[in-house]
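Section: Multi-chain targets

For targets with more than one molecule, the full set of components is provided together so that the structure can be written out for the assembly as a whole rather than chain by chain. Components appear in the order listed by the source. The example entry contains two components.
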Amino acid sequence: MTFDLSQLGRTWRTEEFRVNTMRLAQFAAAIDDENPAHRTGIIAPPVFANVPPMQPCIEALRSVTSMFAFHGEHDFHLHHAIRAGMHLFAEAALRGVIATRGGVSIIVHSKTHNEQGTLVDEQFFTAFAAGATLAGSVGETAPKHHSGPDFSASRPLAAASYVVAADQTSRYADASRDYADYTLRLDAARAKGFEQILLHGMLTMAFAARAVVDRVCGGDSTRLKRLAGRFSKPAFLVPGQALTTRIWQLDPRQGREIFGFDTSDAFGSVVIKNGLAEIAA
Amino acid sequence: MIAKATHKDIAPSWSAVKHRTCTALFSQGCTEDPERPAIIIEGDIVVTRRVLLERCEHFAAFLQQHLNPGDRVAVMLDNRVEFMVAFFAIMANRATAVSIAPTAQLHDAGHILRDSAPVMAIAGTGQIEVIERLRANCPSLKIVLTVEGEEPNGLARYESADKRLALSNAPSERQDIVSVFYTSGTTGAPKGCMLDHGWWLRVLDLDQLLFPRSWQDRQLCCLPFYYADPTIQLMTSLSTRGTLIVMRRFSVSRFWDVVRKYDATELLSIASIPALLLKGEADVRERDHRVRGAVHAGLPQQLHRQLIDRFGFPWMDNYGSTEGGIMARVPRALAAELVGAGSIGVEPPDVTIRIVNDLEQDVSAGESGEAVVSGPDLFKGYLNRPDVTAEVMRDGWYHSGDLLRRDERGLLYFVGRKKELIRRSGENISAAEVEAVLRSHPQILEAAVIAVRDELRGEEVKAYIVLKQGLSMADLSPNDIIEFCKTRLAAFKIPRYLEYRTTDFERTPSMRVQKQALIKDRADLIAGSWDRESGATR
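Its structure, encoded as tokens over all components, is:
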């Protein structure tokens, strides 16, 4: 499989994305988020930020390769919360195509602005083509989001578990418009080599974000300024299983509280590793 | 030097649609993101692309046993998914869908069946009786299928579970006549307008260039499926990973609930829809939605600013027809500047509109005349009517019958229908222009203007008036209306006769006023009208 490296630096743009309470409330309901500001659609759950730039991110990825690539890592830099009434304009640029151990990473950098031109958020989306090879890397990796020395052996500050429902991926697909067939149909998942339907990576991340907002943001998602993690193993649609996010407090920096987190499935697999949350004081 | 208005900021022609046939576009659109909904019909009927393609391919395999290329199939259905299933399955067999309004009765449906001579008819349970009663007079009609049961499986009982015609390999050719739509016309019987793949693809390409869409966009369809527009909307949705949101029929009271619940981001609107929406009770729902634009054919100039201020998104005027496709639209870059200007915009790429007088000479800027249109992929003529086709298509120019004018920037303005002109003492009066003035009165809900015979002047202007709810003639007298017109219209255009109505007009399914209904069965159109010259009711 070859990779087209000629598109490095190119930017893809999408059409205006207007935000209303119903769409935000639908997203909150899809991730079973009970936070009143989210549930009523006034403020977006943090991971909703992934919705407006999803198309240009995928278009940037597909300009490099048509092969199946996992969502490897994601890093949200949330400058402003998304609120109902905003008119958003998203774009994404291809940042790098990097040969790594076991495959090739494709890194896309998205930016979402509001109608006044204010930068609402930036994201670094890393897709991973497992088993692929590349002679020479181009561009850059995403900014580092490792939290420092391994903290996971220490006692976490907090933890939260949320149960996955049978219709979770279906609801998430409708709320995000990510209708990847392997998140909705068993035959499609099997065609990709999995025995079960996969959860969207962003759905798993949204569960982790719920835990972070609930446990260490005092329920105020507007305080969450950065949310990052690596999708270390696929999570599956096993109705009734709980996804557990554990949170550790790390040293503060640049006036922000810093937390590490990971998310595990009910079978003990860590599905999000190297989680990082930065919270405004 | 005045800068010309253009669509210069859009991508080149054929950069949005690259398929050779609509069948190929439909097949690819259904295949590349199969679990994404293709159509959501109010009432939570969700049909994914995968299911839509399956339904079409199974039904196409059934049709393959019964149709030959060029055969015609009458389709007479409400807004149900099976309309689209039938449309694309017929197309895949190189046959032609003949669209009949689901509300048509023996007279109008009979005309279409006799004229188009279909070999097959597909009708809903509400329409089947009309088809069956007409069958004896339509010898070509061999097979009648009824759509019934759970949507989208209303045709499933005709299919074999193991037989599919792969649309990706369907033998469609670009010149195949995909569809025949009967245009109402102002005189004579409706004519069957033949459209090939080229017409459809050209409209799809232009529509996407003029209003680009994203994967997060969902178009709202509140028009009847038997029009071309909903099928255009479905195909542009499929090719941009969008979803078509469908109302069974337009309703002001349900409108914003449907928009919000199913997350519509774009409206396609015609006729009185904007006026009816403005007459709805103000509600927070009408601002808390994600609609980012509306395209409307014949936007009421006086309501334009009000529409934007109240609902919070731009409305752009579009000028098109079944024969000519998209002939003009307001450029998005000029939409804000042209609010309330009454302009229908300028021609899209590769289309030319000349405005000519009766001698076919180009008129000067500011003067009105008939719009004649040239461009690629116009309609392919009227079925069985080479005479009328030759009348409207001359030297490659489509004679629209519409009166337009163009200003010095090149912007076009709709003046009226040539055949709806009222000729009063040698002056031409556009019924549409007088109606627009009357509708702009804050106490008038709706108005319709017709010509009535007059011995002295040839014709006179008569206006039917519907006042807003709770108002009567005592609140807005005939003299008040005449005074209002005097400051807005040349004296010769001011209606002589006024007739107040307490009920809305009879309307076409697209909510246009049926003027024929005003005239039909009225031997004396003046009796009962208020007469400006006598100042009394006759």
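Chain A has six helices and twelve strands.
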